[in-house]
Amino acid sequence: MPGVTPQAVRVIDGRSGRELVSQLIDETGDGKPEALLFQADFAAKQTVRLPCRPPPASSGWTTLRRSTAVRPHANDDFAWESDRIGYRVYGPALRQETVSNGIDVWLKRVRYPIIEKWYQPGADYHADHGEGADLFKVGPTLGCGATAVCKDGKIHRGENFAKWRVLADGPVRTLFELEYDARPIDGGACVRRDA
Prior knowledge:
Blueprint lengths: L9 E2 L10 E4 L9 E4 L13 E2 L15 E4 L5 E4 L3 E5 L14 E5 L6 H4 L13 E2 L14 E4 L2 E4 L5 E7 L4 E12 L2 E7 L1
Antiparallel strand pairs: 1-4, 2-3, 5-6, 6-7, 7-8, 8-9, 10-11, 12-13, 13-14
């Protein structure tokens, strides 16, 4: 397929000719994609042609983006969102203010990305101005889905993440790792990594 490369490929709906939302995934970080993901609708036992094409000749082509964004921010939050909801976790710089591995939830009323806008200086993302808001107070809790070690009836929460790595950021899938420092629990140590 002339013009198609691992970094430049489009998936086309053979019936309508429209470009489908697609994404190349390089899970190993070696610069070579291992998978091509796309979103398509078809019925059971239906045969659909989904040809791959090179990008258009115009220089302004970018892959269609529908939902996700992954951003480490200046205040060390790590935030990600879909077209319906946003999340964040606290990073190392916030240990002086909040120690928590809890997952925060940002409720959205809009389908477009809002994380960057809500992180602008002076933005008040705790009040809903029509786009949604951060109405979930995590504090020292597990938030929405964080994990903890339970030993002898006591919950041992993790601390803020120490390192992050983005494996994929695109319209179909977001993959990332958050690494947490070892934390002693009754004389032992526990190392935690989330993805």
